[in-house]
Backbone:
């Protein structure tokens, strides 16, 4: 067991104890400092009066409780556990309480589970950067929201739970036609894609662009946003089984990165190169991206997906990615007449005005029917491991969504009305089969 796995194992055992005997106080105080709601230390509501048909209810049974997902340590899918928190979260000035209906799953959460996402506090902590739901309570000084508003929410973490408390400025009113699943799928992916394309790369009509992982959340968002302009040629990498879908979504040239060298395929079609490359991979792929740029082209690096190769951190993959990391000096950059940019939405969390302006624009585009998040699949909190596995193995086309609502138990099949008779018939059939088999064996011996 490595030094990193040892504390994680202790945290996991501790988390399991908490699951069996849920605490009455909020588990992680550290996470609360980053915006995660902390339960109020208030007594529970008075129990309802007893009636002839109803016995008095114990006060403990009416304590406010809600489900939350916790990262209990670094490692595999089993490190994210479902727990119950007790105590109603308290509201501060300018905050709102939201009943969560859907949450988005992002690649950052896969990195966080492996201990490779620096903005996520140490376990135990609740992940989750985006969600949607309904406002149930308002703090003082909140004047532009009301109870009952349907909102989408953006935060650094802490949103994978049934109830969250967030600053009102981190919520955005949902269009009437938008579903909770779509709202949870929009913030991170579409903010990332829009800011890279229109704020950094300044994409224009007639240009060409390479979008890696074109079937993922950011990939689909970027492809849709490119359709806002005329004659933008989109190259998109994805496995062959996804080509039809991304082609229908606007990718001009789908490329199977598993069986072909995408750089060679692009040069065959566009010998002069590309205007823009969006790189979420890192390592040697960043070098390829730079070499594919035309003069005056722009490369935007926004991830290091090549570091993630299994459930747990792969030190060899991390070392290989960093060893092959692209580096360049300013003189070479000047001679190449190319631009290299980096983008990380997590480090823009303090840019409230910029994020609000961009979100407002994105919601307008949704209302106009020009963008629409593609939902790949939905999983209940109990199935978070399956959800992560689907995204980790690159099986998704679009956004994977988590639902706080408890999973309903599957209905058991109705019992046979005449079980005894059926069993008797089965026994008779077995006896007949045995007799036939015995007769056949005797005949073979006689022959």
Residues:
């Amino acid at each position: 067991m490595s030094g990193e796995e040892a504390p994680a194992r202790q945290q996991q055992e501790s988390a399991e104890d908490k699951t069996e005997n849920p605490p009455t106080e909020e588990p992680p105080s550290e996470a609360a400092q980053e915006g995660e709601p902390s339960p109020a230390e208030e007594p529970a509501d008075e129990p309802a009066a007893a009636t002839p048909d109803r016995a008095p209810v114990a006060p403990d049974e009416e304590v406010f409780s809600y489900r939350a997902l916790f990262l209990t340590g670094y490692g595999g899918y089993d490190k994210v556990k479902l727990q119950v928190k007790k105590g109603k979260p308290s509201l501060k000035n300018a905050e709102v309480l939201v009943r969560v209906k859907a949450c988005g799953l992002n690649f950052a959460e896969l990195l966080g589970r492996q201990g490779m996402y620096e903005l996520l506090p140490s376990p135990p902590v609740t992940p989750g950067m985006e969600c949607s739901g309904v406002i149930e309570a308002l703090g003082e000084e909140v004047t532009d929201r009301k109870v009952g508003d349907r909102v989408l929410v953006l935060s650094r973490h802490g949103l994978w739970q049934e109830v969250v408390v967030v600053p009102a400025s981190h919520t955005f009113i949902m269009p009437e036609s938008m579903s909770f699943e779509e709202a949870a799928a929009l913030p991170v992916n579409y903010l990332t894609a829009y800011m890279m394309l229109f704020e950094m790369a300044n994409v224009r009509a007639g240009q060409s662009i390479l979008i890696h992982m074109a079937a993922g959340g950011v990939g689909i968002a970027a492809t849709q946003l490119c359709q806002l302009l005329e004659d933008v040629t989109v190259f998109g990498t994805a496995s062959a089984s996804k080509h039809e879908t991304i082609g229908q979504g606007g990718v001009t040239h789908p490329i199977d990165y598993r069986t072909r060298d995408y750089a060679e395929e692009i040069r065959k079609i566009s010998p002069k190169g590309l205007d823009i490359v969006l790189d979420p991979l890192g390592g040697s792929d960043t070098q390829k991206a730079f070499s594919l740029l035309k003069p005056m082209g722009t490369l935007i690096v926004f991830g290091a997906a090549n570091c993630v190769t299994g459930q747990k951190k792969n030190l060899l993959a991390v070392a290989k990615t960093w060893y092959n990391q692209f580096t360049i000096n300013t003189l070479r950059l000047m001679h190449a007449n190319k631009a290299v940019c980096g983008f990380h939405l997590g480090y823009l969390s303090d840019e409230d005005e910029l994020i609000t302006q961009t979100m407002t624009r994105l919601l307008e585009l949704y209302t106009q029917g020009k963008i629409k998040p593609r939902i790949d699949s939905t999983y209940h909190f109990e199935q978070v491991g399956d959800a992560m596995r689907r995204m980790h193995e690159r099986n998704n086309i679009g956004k994977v969504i988590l639902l706080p609502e408890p999973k309903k138990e599957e209905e058991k099949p109705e019992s046979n009305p005449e079980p005894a008779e059926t069993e008797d018939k089965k026994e008779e059939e077995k006896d007949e089969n045995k007799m036939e088999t015995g007769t056949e064996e005797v005949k073979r011996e006689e022959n």
Notes: DSSP finds 14 helices and 15 strands in the chain. The mean pLDDT is 83. Residues 419-446 form the longest helix (28 residues). The two ends are 66 Å apart (CA to CA).
